[in-house]
Every structure is written in structure tokens, then in C-alpha cells.
Amino acid sequence: MNGTGNNAHIKRLLATKQCQGGNLQDAHLARLNLSGADMSGAKLMFAHLNGTNLRDANLSGADISLANLVGADMVNADLSGVDAKGVNLLDAKLDGAKLGGADLVFANLVNTQMNEANLSGASLEGSNLIGAHLERAYLTGTNLVGTNFAHAQLMGANLSNGDLSNASLVEANLSDANLTGANLRNANLLNANLTGANLTGADLSGANLEGAKLDGAIGIYPENAMNRRRSHDTQTPSSPQTAMPYVSLIQSGAPRAVANGFGLPRPGLPS
After folding, report:
1. pLDDT at 158 over 50
2. Which of 66, 197, 200, 238 is the most buried (most CB within 10 A)?
3. Is 88 exposed, middle or buried (0-12, 13-18, 19+ CB in 10 A)?
4. d(Cα 63, Cα 47) in Å, to the nearest integer?
5. Does residue 227 sit in helix, strand or coil?
6. First vs last Cα of the chain: how many Å apart?
7. Do 2 and 21 contact (CB within 8 A), yes or no?
8. At 244, is the pLDDT very low, low, confident or very high (cuts 50, 70, 90)?
């Protein structure tokens, strides 16, 4: 259970659930009950916490980069300001968690439950959120460049002023979401559900809205978008296309590895 982390710090954590600023690097803490533990500022790089109960735990300012938290229960945990680059949170439960200002670049968040979580000001650039649940989550001003939200559930989420450029939102559910002032340049919204979403002031330059549901959406004109798409579809190859406001990101022969906008394979599930 001790791994290569500092044994004294691990023993203190197990005995008291207190290890502020401790060295828990590469520690084996899988499937333990650490609910309510205080590991704020702790070093947990490469730690093994899969299936661990971390409900209401305090990990603010901790370094959990590249840690294994598959299936961990982190409901209502405080992860504000964490360094979580490349962390594996597959199937983890983070409902109501505080993640403001967290660094989750290239994190694996596939099928993660993050309903009503606060990710304001966080960075999830290049992260994999396929099938993630973020109903009524707060993502205001969040860096979501190149993230993969395919099939994600974002109903009622607040994404105002977020940067979703080059993000994949294929078949994502964004009904009633707040996307005011969001950057959606070159985002792929193929078959996405934007029913009742607020897109006032959003930048949709180059975005793919083919098949998107836009009933009741605010700040966008679905009839015009549909008419322009149809006009684009009937153009000959030599016809000018400068007036086309929405450009599909799906191109025949385009390599799948560049779908995240970085030319890198996505973490987590294979491309």
C-alpha cells in the first residue's frame, strides 16, 4: 500500500486522514475510504487512487498529474487549483466538485459524472470527455480548446465566455446551455442538440452545425443556417464559397489523429 511515496506521510494519512502538503507520489491508495480527508497541496503524481472514496475530500492545490483515479468517488470534493494534467478520471464521480482554476490539460474524463461541478476558469485543453455528464455544470471562462465532448450531456451547463474552438461536440446535448460569448470557431457540432441554448454573442465562424437541433435557440438563425448549408451543398466545385459561414470539420481523407486540433492522439479511448 506504500508504493514509493513517503511512508511516514502515507501512514499519517491512513491514521488521521490528514496529509496537507505531504509526499504521496506513486502511493498505492486504491479502494480506500478517504472521505473528508485533507490532502491539500499534497504531491500525488502517479498515485493509485482507483475506486477510492474521496467524497468531500480537500485536494485543493494538490498535484494529481498522471494519477490513476478510475472510478473514484469525488463527489463534492475540493479540487480547486489542482495540477491534474493527464490525470485518469475514467468513470469517476465528481458531481458538485470544485475544480475552479484546475489544470486538466489532456485529462481522461470519459464517462465522468460532473453534474453541477464548478470548472470556472479551468483548463481542459485537449481533454477527452466522451460521454461525460456535465448537467448544470459551471464552465464559465473555461479553456476547452480541442476538447472531445462527443455524446456528452451538457444540459443547462454554463459555458459563457468559454473557449471551445476546435472542440468536438458531435451529438452532444447542449439543450438550454448558456453559450453567450463563447468561442466556437471551427467547433464540430454535428447532430448536436442546441434546443433552447443561448448563443448570443458566440463566435461560430467555421463551425459545423450540420444536423444540429436549433429549436428555440437564442442568438442564431437556424433557417438562415439551413438555407446557406443547402446552397453550399448545391454549389459546383468551381462556385465561390466565401459566403459560407459554417464549414464542416469532417473532410474525406482527413486523418483522425488531428481531430483534437493538436495533431496528437486523444488520451483515454483510442481514436
Report:
1. yes
2. 197
3. buried
4. 10
5. helix
6. 34
7. no
8. very low
